[in-house]
Design goal:
Layout: E1 2-10, E2 13-21, E3 27-32, E4 35-41, E5 48-53, H1 58-71
Antiparallel strand pairs: 1-2, 2-3, 3-4, 4-5
Length: 92
């Protein structure tokens, strides 16, 4: 588990953001002023999406997204080359 703490200023007020990567998953816990949110990297779009908790404002989300892209660059969705179609199999 890796935790990154950063401070950003929005409208002149400093805000402390803690981003914690969940082990062996593509999930992140974001803690801002005792409010906890979870975001996940989607399988289909390979983008950061809301999972549960408090939704972040667009300004905070852009800061969190840039922190995740900078400090966790290898976290990607699993690339699915092809899907398994059951019509391809013969039933005996």
């Amino acid at each position: 588990m890796r935790v990154i703490t950063t401070t950003v200023q929005i409208d002149g007020a400093p805000i402390i953001i803690k981003v914690k990567k969940i082990d062996k998953q593509r999930r992140f816990e974001i803690k801002i002023a005792k409010n906890l949110s979870e975001y996940v990297i989607s399988d289909q779009t390979n983008e950061l999406e809301f999972y549960e908790g408090m939704k972040l404002t667009p300004e905070l989300f852009s800061h969190v997204k840039s922190v995740i892209n900078q400090y966790f660059p290898r976290v990607r969705a699993i690339e699915k080359i092809g899907y398994d179609d059951y019509h391809d199999y013969n039933d005996y």
